[in-house]
Inverse folding.
């Protein structure tokens, strides 16, 4: 292997002839200081091992497949790797270090070990301190495969990076054959990787991708991230019935917390719960034409009332065949205005029977073409309120009162700030005279209609003949309202707060607000630690947050601490508490808040924690609320001209946030621009309807009204 050999000359090919890599090549060469030992092996003859070389080939290939290298760069790396490895692997074991260096063309003949290293360092333009020998403890040889201190870790030659390791030798005058071979192998490793690294210049360092519990992340694929959070938190799953979901205990407990709070608010304002049929006669829907037309494409229809067994003559299998056709089909309720209106017509005779303030907790069905757990499923859970009033003014007061109730509940329960406003004519509930909405922004900057309250006027009353005798002894039609929120709120809170480690739950709806995890590394302290955790839980449960006792769970399962931690992280528990042997001894607890980084810990005296725990829980809620409010406000932009308006919704900017604009367009004009740009008017905000006069963004007509536009779920 003469230094003039073309193969060796090729090793010295100028760097600029090699395609520039799109990632630092040193990640192949020395990962945490183990590349030399584990890629090549501890013995010299393993330099020829296909298993060792295969690992490096595999890494290079996977890097190419990930899209970080193109084909020409991959070929250049593989060619140079094969060439350098070939030269190193052919060196006989008995060669001394200087002979090896000479054979490789890395040093002139006749140099001693120190001179050879100095030459190697000079060749790579690095200071000698990065690769030094230390002579210690006679009679032993140690190889230290450790990364150097940070300030000495990166060795630069035209951007190339290498991590070197120290070799520690005994008295140099008593080096035996075996130690000599070990030192020789370390030299080969060092020279091999320095050669390989110097072949390829690197771009600026690329920061390592942070490790997260959820893949993909929000920034990589928000819709898929959402599905993975639902799965990781064990909230729900798709069922065998297309478009329908199974809500699992952790997910249903969140809905129960929402239901419990709202039910208390409804009853505090005079409403009562009732229940109405799941099946609605088709003729009832036909009575209110606009209403029926609005839900027509989403209705599931029942047409038969029994099944008959029928054997297939070819397969012999029994099939169940619908038979007994109904005289009138039934619709599975998409909403219950018509069936409840029929009941109201029987219950109302005089003004003394009014108001009727009724709420129903139920399931409904709207046939969804593209279902998504919690956000859009064919069957979902909700509450629907229905009221009847003597006058228009009373009905409007009810509509606005519920509108405010929803905004308060979503803020207080879910830590989500909403914008209150009225829907445009194009976006109103079918058959309503006015629809009020609360709109929430989630982390991909899309909008979610979190709840609606409708003033129905007398439309449904006339269709269902809901009349009463007024104070002047005249027959009148009542004025009705309807309003509702659904399990969509669970999807809203997931998208509003959760992160790349999983679900983040506001404390008031968390099934468990505090989880205590005993840390028991030794069996002799296990019982004492668990007893301390149970005693702490008892004292915590004596305290109240909001109107309920603090919910606490002690996780005593026989699982590793890391497994438990990440399960509760992914489930979004607001506060995790750990107690280990040292904590027990020092009467302390270790706290981890879900609104902070997963590995961030706080240590507190146990009595201090018990004193401040309610304040800590509330601070988590406020932190989530302020974070969501800040994000929303940063992503609402005022816009006054059509060019900027249309540019904002360019297809290359899929989720650009909301725009607020002057608006005086007609229903037809709104529908045309909405369809063209794939957007909707989310609402006419309550606090933006008496602004300084400005030209409408679309028509130029002067207006004091403002509209918020966005893309939505």
């Amino acid at each position: 292997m003469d230094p003039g050999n073309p193969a060796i000359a090729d090793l010295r090919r100028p760097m600029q002839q090699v395609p520039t890599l799109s990632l630092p090549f040193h990640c192949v060469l020395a990962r945490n200081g183990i590349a030399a030992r584990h890629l090549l092996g501890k013995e010299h003859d393993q330099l020829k091992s296909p298993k060792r070389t295969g690992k490096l080939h595999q890494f290079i290939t996977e890097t190419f497949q990930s899209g970080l290298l193109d084909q020409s760069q991959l070929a250049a790396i593989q060619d140079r790797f094969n060439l350098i490895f070939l030269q190193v692997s052919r060196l006989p074991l008995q060669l001394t270090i200087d002979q090896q260096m000479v054979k490789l063309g890395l040093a002139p003949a006749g140099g001693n070990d120190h001179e050879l290293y100095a030459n190697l360092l000079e060749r790579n333009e690095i200071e000698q301190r990065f690769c030094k020998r230390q002579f210690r403890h006679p009679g032993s040889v140690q190889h230290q495969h450790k990364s150097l201190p940070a300030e000495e870790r990166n060795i630069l030659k035209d951007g190339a990076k290498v991590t070197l390791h120290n070799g520690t030798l005994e008295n140099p005058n008593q080096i035996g054959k075996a130690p000599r071979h070990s030192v020789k192998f370390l030299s080969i490793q060092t020279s091999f990787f320095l050669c390989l690294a110097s072949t390829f210049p690197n771009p600026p360092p690329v920061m390592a991708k942070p490790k997260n519990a959820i893949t993909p992340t929000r920034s990589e694929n928000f819709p898929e991230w959402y599905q993975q959070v639902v799965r990781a938190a064990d909230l729900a799953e798709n069922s065998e019935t297309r478009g329908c979901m199974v809500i699992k205990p952790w997910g249903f407990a969140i809905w129960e917390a929402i239901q419990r709070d709202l039910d208390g608010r409804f009853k505090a304002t005079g409403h009562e719960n009732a229940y109405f049929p799941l099946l609605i006669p088709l003729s009832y829907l036909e009575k209110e034409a606009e209403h029926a037309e609005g839900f027509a494409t989403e209705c599931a229809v029942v047409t038969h009332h029994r099944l008959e067994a029928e054997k297939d003559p070819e397969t012999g299998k029994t099939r169940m065949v619908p038979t007994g056709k109904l005289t009138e089909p039934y619709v599975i309720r998409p909403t219950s205005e018509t069936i409840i209106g029929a009941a109201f017509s029987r219950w109302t005779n005089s003004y003394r029977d009014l108001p009727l303030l009724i709420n129903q907790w139920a399931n409904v069905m709207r046939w969804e073409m593209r279902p998504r757990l919690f956000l859009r499923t064919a069957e979902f859970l909700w509450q629907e309120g229905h009221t009847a009033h003597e006058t228009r003014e009373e009905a409007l007061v009810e509509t606005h009162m519920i509108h405010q109730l929803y905004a308060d509940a979503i803020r207080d329960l879910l830590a989500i700030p909403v914008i209150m406003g009225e829907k445009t004519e194009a976006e109103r509930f079918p058959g309503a005279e006015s629809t009020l909405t609360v709109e929430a922004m989630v982390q991909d900057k899309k909008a979610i209609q979190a709840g609606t309250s409708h003033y129905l006027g007398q439309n449904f009353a006339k269709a269902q003949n809901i009349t009463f005798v007024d104070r002047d002894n005249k027959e009148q039609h009542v004025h009705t309202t309807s309003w509702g929120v659904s399990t969509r709120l669970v999807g809203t809170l997931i998208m509003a707060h959760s992160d790349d480690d999983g679900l983040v739950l506001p404390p008031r709806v968390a099934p468990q607000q505090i989880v205590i995890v005993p840390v028991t590394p030794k069996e002799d302290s296990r019982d004492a630690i668990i007893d301390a955790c149970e005693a702490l839980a008892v004292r915590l449960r004596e305290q109240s947050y909001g109107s309920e006792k603090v919910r606490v769970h002690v996780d005593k399962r026989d699982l590793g601490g890391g497994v438990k931690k990440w399960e509760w992280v992914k489930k979004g528990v607001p506060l995790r508490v750990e107690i280990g042997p040292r904590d027990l001894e020092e009467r302390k607890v270790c706290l981890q808040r879900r609104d902070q980084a997963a590995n961030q810990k706080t240590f507190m005296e146990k009595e201090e924690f018990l004193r401040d725990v309610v304040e800590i829980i509330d601070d988590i809620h406020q932190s989530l609320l302020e974070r969501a409010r800040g994000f929303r406000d940063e992503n609402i932009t005022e816009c006054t001209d059509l060019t900027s308006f249309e540019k904002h919704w360019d297809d290359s900017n899929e989720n650009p946030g909301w725009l607020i604009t002057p608006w005086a367009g007609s229903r037809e004009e709104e529908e045309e621009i909405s369809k063209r740009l794939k957007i909707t008017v989310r609402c006419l905000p309550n606090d933006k309807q008496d602004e300084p006069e400005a030209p409408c963004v679309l028509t130029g007509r002067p207006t004091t009204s403002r509209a918020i536009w966005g893309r939505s779920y």
User: Anything to note?
Assistant: Residues 1-53, 83-98, 116-205 have pLDDT under 50 and may be disordered. The CA atoms of residues 388 and 480 lie 4 Å apart. The longest helix spans residues 606-634.
